[in-house]
Write a structure and sequence with these properties.
365 residues, alpha/beta, 14 helices
């Protein structure tokens, strides 16, 4: 059977290993497994959200309100934007897909950082688009502009991951806004801000305000409930942009693209600011412990504005260390699929991080 030629050479996205795999392969009880591979919230989900999901469970047979009116109103009030400036997705990944289907094609190109979220390239290749990456792994806007100027006739979409996954670095807000002013209005610039809450909490100079994005005709802000709000399993993301962009992306959205329970969970999650604050405070405090550990152990790390930290290695194999940790019931994210001798660690609760440090010491030469 012949398939679309755009699929040739495409590789599947490699997700963080699930707890169930460790239980099956190594015979470790689920309660003894620590998963720090997928940047989920170490505190789980807000208890108020859990109760809301339970109370809504009897309505699971009903489709959700496809206008997502209540959620859009809540997001609009939070960010100072209108409901018509918002699109809801099954995770922010789905909106990334919408953006590429709306703007990219076999005759166009997509520009992104040297190392960044893998789904940008996967979705771009699905529509046959050419890929341009910066030589530097991290975001360097001078290099972005250099490539953009050299290929203006091709580039239709630019991705900025703020902060960047899987590396953790983040551009200053002012330089991002100056960069946006240099881009032609027919090029869609996607600001993937899945970890913006963490960046802004750590350093106000790194935070992107969605309402500011509406000053640009060609920019979309992407946010998610998967990280700070602890709803990774519910798959809810959102995009904020000019109504003209949202209207076009809406043509690609299937009806009922998030579930009745996901919708209820997201609405309730926005109300529990105390849970989010607790998450952000823990992250900042525990991140400092990882940085101190890395310095003491002479491990190279990238200063992170997310809820994870990336450790890079020279002489030792990051994959080997990751596998040894896995056998002990600690799941990290090996970054070999990004062609890096590194692994990414989600910042856990204090007791989880204690175990990580203890086991890492046993594996470091």
């Amino acid at each position: 059977m012949k398939f679309n030629e755009n699929l040739a050479g495409l590789v599947n996205y490699e997700a963080g290993k699930p707890i169930e795999l460790v239980v099956r392969e190594f015979g470790i009880e689920a309660k003894d497994v620590i998963k720090l591979a997928s940047n989920e919230n170490p505190f789980g989900t807000s208890p108020h959200v859990v109760e809301a999901i339970k109370s809504a469970a009897s309505n699971a047979f009903l489709y959700p309100d496809d206008s997502y009116f209540e959620l859009k109103e809540a997001l609009g009030a939070k960010f100072g934007v209108g409901a018509k400036n918002i699109i809801i997705g099954s995770g922010s990944d789905q909106i990334i897909e919408f953006c590429l289907h709306a703007k990219a094609n076999p005759k166009s190109a997509v520009l992104m950082a040297g190392v960044t979220f893998a789904m940008y390239e996967i979705y771009a290749k699905q529509v046959g688009s050419k890929i341009y990456r910066t030589r530097l792994q991290e975001h360097d806007l001078a290099e972005f502009l250099e490539i953009y100027e050299a290929h203006k006739d091709e580039i239709s979409v630019i991705f900025l991951c703020l902060p960047n996954n899987p590396l953790g670095e983040c551009l200053d807000t002012k330089e991002v806004y100056e960069f946006l002013k240099r881009i032609d209005e027919d090029v869609l610039v996607v600001l993937d801000c899945a970890y913006n809450e963490f960046a802004k909490f750590k350093d106000a100079k790194k935070g992107i305000e969605p309402s500011e994005i509406l000053k640009f005709e060609n920019v979309i802000y992407l946010g998610t409930f998967s990280k700070a709000y602890g709803l990774g399993g519910m798959r809810v993301g959102y995009g904020i942009a000019k109504e003209s962009i949202i209207s076009e992306l809406g043509k690609l959205r299937a009806p009922f693209n998030i579930t009745t329970l996901s919708l209820k969970a997201a609405i309730e999650a926005l109300k529990d600011e105390e849970f989010v604050t607790k998450t952000l405070e823990n992250n900042l405090k525990q991140m400092a412990r990882y940085e101190a550990f890395a310095r003491e152990a002479d491990i190279e790390f990238i200063p992170s504005y997310t809820n994870f930290i990336t450790f890079k290695f020279d002489k030792q194999s990051a994959s080997e260390i990751s596998q040894n940790m896995l056998k002990k019931g600690i799941i990290l994210r090996d970054l070999k699929s990004y062609k890096l001798n590194a692994f990414r660690i989600t910042i856990g609760q204090s007791w989880q991080n204690d175990r990580v440090f203890e086991e890492l010491k046993q594996n470091l030469k």
